TrEMBL record:
<protein>
    <submittedName>
        <fullName>3-oxoacyl-[acyl-carrier-protein] reductase FabG</fullName>
        <ecNumber>1.1.1.100</ecNumber>
    </submittedName>
</protein>
<dbReference type="GO" id="GO:0032787">
    <property type="term" value="P:monocarboxylic acid metabolic process"/>
</dbReference>
<dbReference type="InterPro" id="IPR050259">
    <property type="entry name" value="SDR"/>
</dbReference>
<dbReference type="InterPro" id="IPR036291">
    <property type="entry name" value="NAD(P)-bd_dom_sf"/>
</dbReference>
<comment type="similarity">
    <text>Belongs to the short-chain dehydrogenases/reductases (SDR) family.</text>
</comment>
<dbReference type="InterPro" id="IPR002347">
    <property type="entry name" value="SDR_fam"/>
</dbReference>
<dbReference type="InterPro" id="IPR057326">
    <property type="entry name" value="KR_dom"/>
</dbReference>
<dbReference type="GO" id="GO:0004316">
    <property type="term" value="F:3-oxoacyl-[acyl-carrier-protein] reductase (NADPH) activity"/>
</dbReference>
<feature type="domain" description="Ketoreductase">
    <location>
        <begin position="8"/>
        <end position="193"/>
    </location>
</feature>
<dbReference type="Pfam" id="PF13561">
    <property type="entry name" value="adh_short_C2"/>
</dbReference>
<keyword id="KW-0560">Oxidoreductase</keyword>
<dbReference type="InterPro" id="IPR020904">
    <property type="entry name" value="Sc_DH/Rdtase_CS"/>
</dbReference>
Length: 250
C-alpha cells in the first residue's frame, strides 16, 4: 500500500536515531514535511534532515527538552513557522535503564517516567489545539511490548509504556470531536535498538528464539506502521494499540 502524506506536517520527537530516525525518514518519503527533535545529538539530527532532503523531501530539526512545556511550544512554533499547521505528532522520544527491580533508584524511576510518559502528555497537550485549529490530525505514540507484559529488568520502563497506552486512549477520546485520532504502536524487540544497548549476539539470539517470526524486528517496520496510522487509510482507527512484535506477544 502506497502511503500518501503530501501536504501534511509531521513532528517527530527523538528523531535523530533508532526508531525515531526511521519514522522521520519514512514520513518524509511519503511526502510529509518533517520536523524532528533532538536533545543533544544535533549532528545526528542534521544527518537525518539531510537524508530526507536529498531524497526530495522537506525536513528540519529543533533542539527540544521533551519534559519542558516551554521548550515544546517553541519547537512546535518553529515547525509551524517553517512548514505550516501541524497534522501529525509522533511521540517517540524515550529512555530506558535496565535494572533489577530491587535496585532501581528513585531518580531513575522519575527520569524515565518524565521522558516516556510526561513527555508525550505535554507534547500531545500542546499539539491538540493546533491540530484542532487545522481541522484534525493524527497522534501516534511509540510504546513497547514491555508495557504489555513487563520485562524482568524494566519495571520503570514497562510502567511508563503501559501508562502510554492508557494515555493514548484518553487522548483519542478527547481529540475525537476535533478530528484528531490517537493510536499507540507497541514495538517488539528491534535489532538496531538492542545493538545500541550493547547486547551481545548470544543474548540477541536467545531473545529471537521466543518470537513467532523467528527474528528481531527492524526499525523500518515500526515506521511503516506509524506511516499507516498517520494516513487517511487509517481514518477509522483510533484509541488502538497496534502490535509490531513478530508474534512475541499476542
Amino acid at each position: 500500500m502506497a502511503i500518501d502524506l503530501q501536504g501534511r506536517v509531521a513532528f517527530v520527537t527523538g528523531g535523530s536515531r533508532g526508531i525515531g530516525r526511521a519514522i522521520a525518514i519514512r514520513l518524509g518519503g511519503a511526502g510529509a514535511a518533517v520536523a524532528l527533535t533532538y536533545r543533544v545529538e544535533g549532528d545526528a539530527a542534521a544527518a537525518v534532515v539531510a537524508e530526507i532532503v536529498s531524497a526530495g523531501g522537506r525536513a528540519t530539526a529543533f533542539p527540544m527538552e521533551v519534559t519542558d512545556r516551554t521548550s515544546i511550544e517553541a519547537a512546535l512554533d518553529g515547525a509551524e513557522a517553517t512548514f505550516g499547521p501541524l497534522s501529525i505528532l509522533v511521540n517517540n522520544a524515550g529512555i530506558n535503564k535496565p535494572t533489577d527491580f530491587d535496585r532501581i533508584e528513585e531518580a531513575d524511576w522519575d527520569s524515565i517516567m518524565a521522558v516516556n510518559l510526561k513527555g508525550p502528555f505535554l507534547c500531545s497537550q500542546a499539539a491538540l489545539p493546533r491540530m484542532a485549529k487545522a481541522g484534525g490530525g493524527a497522534i501516534v505514540n511509540i510504546g513497547s511490548v514491555s508495557g504489555q507484559y513487563g520485562g524482568p529488568r524494566t519495571a520503570h520502563y514497562a510502567a511508563s509504556k503501559a501508562g502510554l497506552i492508557s494515555l493514548g486512549q484518553v487522548i483519542a477520546r478527547f481529540g475525537a470531536a476535533s478530528g484528531v485520532r490517537c493510536n499507540t504502536v507497541a514495538a517488539g524487540l528491534i535489532g538496531s535498538e538492542m545493538a545500541a544497548a550493547g547486547m551481545q549476539s548470544a543474548a540477541v539470539q536467545q531473545a529471537a528464539a521466543g518470537i513467532v517470526a523467528g527474528r528481531l524486528g527492524e526499525a523500518r517496520e515500526v515506521a511503516d506502521a506509524v506511516a499507516f496510522l498517520a494516513s487517511d487509510e487509517a481514518s477509522y482507527i483510533t484509541a488502538q494499540t497496534v502490535n509490531v512484535n513478530g508474534g512475541l506477544y499476542f
